[in-house]
């Protein structure tokens, strides 16, 4: 990384001043500072959550789960009423 001397820093400061203007520069710096504070607080909160969420004792080992037995069921009985083209008629009460 190149070393920045005082001349380069002054040139960069002048370019930033020309781009943002003297009125907007303090507001931009203030907003940047607030954003950094919020970011720092949030990262600290995440670290605190990680340390407080650590369990005191190790969790017991998980037991292997046996597969469920497949039950053999008889096939569903065919419709008692005659069907046409494989479709059972609809009862009048269901309509």
Number of strand elements: 0
Arithmetic mean of pLDDT: 76
Tell me the strand percentage band: under 5%
Helix and strand content put the structural class at: mainly alpha
List keywords for this structure.
single chain, mainly alpha, 1 helix, elongated
Q: How is the topology of this model organized?
A:
Blueprint: H1 6-52
Brief rundown of the structure:
With 95 residues, this protein is mainly α.
Protein architecture, described:
By secondary structure, this protein is an all-alpha fold. The chain has a domain at 21-54. Helix content is 49%, strand content 0%. The protein has one helix and no strands. The chain has one helix at 6-52. The longest helix is centred in the N-terminal third of the chain and has 47 residues, at 6-52. The radius of gyration is 37 Å and the shape is elongated. It starts with 5 loop residues before the first helix and ends in a 43-residue tail after the last helix. It is found in: Cell membrane. InterPro entries: TatA/B/E, TatA/E.
